[in-house]
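Hi Y.,

Following your request, here is the sequence exactly as I used it, all 452 residues.
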Amino acid sequence: MAMMPVSATRADHALAPYHPPFASTYSDGEKETVSARADPGGDEVRMVAAVSPLHLLSSAPPLLCTSSPLHLLSSSLPLNRPEQTVSSLPSVVRNGIRIDGLNGISLPLRRAAWTITDQDPRTSCSSPGSAEQDRMHQPQRYTRALGRAMLLPILLLTLNGTAQDRRVVITIDDLPCAGCAEGTWAQVTDDLLRTLQAHRVPAIGFVNEHKLYQGGVLDSARLNLLDRWLEAGMELGNHTYAHLGATAHPLAAYEQDIVAGEEHLRPLTERRGSPLRYFRHPFLQTGPTAGYRDSLNAVIAQHGYTIAPVTFDNDEYVFAGCYAAALQARNDSATKRLARQYLDHMVGSVRFHEGQTASYFGRAIPQILLLHANALNAAHADSLLSWFEHEGYTFITLEEALQDPCYRLPESTTRYGYSWIRRWQEAAGLRPLWPPEAPNDVQQQYDALPKR
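Below is the corresponding structure, written out as tokens. Let me know if you'd prefer a different format.
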């Protein structure tokens, strides 16, 4: 059957911060082809998937199922024909190197991002309406359908140059240290702060005060680690005392955890002349019902806090747990492999959320990245921050980011914790796509770790 054009657009309105490429989709009734080029005479990049229908510049998720064993970004995007394998792909696609005719832009892929799977997609695909399969932002695996990346935004971001207004806030949770081995807390803190200062990042760290205690007694050395953050010019925020999730705890208990989370933190910040003004929800859970969420928002405001959202959400904690275990086992090859996989995942996650932002807002917004104070970032945040700089990002404060009107948009009500971009889309009646997740082997290794 001949391929019939479905739609074509120049997409200027949806990607104002970028150079608008020409994009189109075609359907033969069984599969969709998405193609794009940087200019009318430029070379074309094409992706094919068994999709019906694919909505251009829409956040409604297409059902992407294909017999192809090749999937991009941890089984997230079927690429090219079903019979193709990694070795048969063109080198420019296989290796993610520069493509002539596309403004010298490289595909945002790395070889480490490819995975081969024999899984039958018919058993792993879910309908676009399966909203209850939402991922909880905590160490549990929710199997999601193959092919949940958005084809067109990935193509558009591949073809486009640097955004005009790329800004990002670096936020770091679970201070003073997350999953750190005993005796390494000070080193992790110093290495992380040294990296942040080297890149001139005005970061903010969110504290769980229960970690300041050992055997029920306040540990002055751990409290001193927080002081090092302030001395380094960073800001601190409240992440509750015991890291309680809103979904599983009543509002009264949650409020008590907020208050307990500032017992030592507030006097410390006041002595340094740094106001304690931001609150980060554990697990990014903001309340399972609209009533709970609204009441919790009022409680947070009553205690003088502004909520710290997250837009660049990711599975960093999964890699960090496996990395810590590899360090403890002194498995150098595993730590190196996990570091590479982690950085590839972070790039893929940022690319995904950039695409979601572009298709929803039609402009760049100041993004907020979630990281944790762990050994993985102490060793490899330098590479991640260097990548952001290479992509043209400027590091800004949380205060600067929250001035953007997007952070005053309505949010969806959910039991789960995920990016605010998704919350805004859901509140607008859309069914957003799922972001890239950790590779199966890393997730399985993480799931097998003993939980504290």
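Residues 332-361 form the longest helix (30 residues).

Thanks again,
Q.
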